[in-house]
Description:
Helix content is 54%, strand content 9%. The protein contains 5 helices and 2 strands.
Amino acid sequence: MKRMYKENPMFILKKKNAYFKREYGISLEDYDIKFVKQKGNCAICKTSSTKFKKNLMLDHDHKTGKIRGLLCCNCNYALGHLKDDVMILKSAIKYLNRHA
């Protein structure tokens, strides 16, 4: 399988496009459009994607499935760990401000 990836980079793009279509209902082209709109930066921390080893992740609402934007791993995981709950996030902000 590794040889197939090395010999045919289009194979990777086709697999990624199929994954995006299946999981999120968007194409790789849609991802690229979001990427350009966000100037290649995480939608939350604004860090350039060039600073990360991995590509920006598609962030989506787990209830509706709607794509919200592209996030770095840290920001995406943070939202997940906070259960996408605005009240928990506000509480975390208050906590950080109290201990600043």
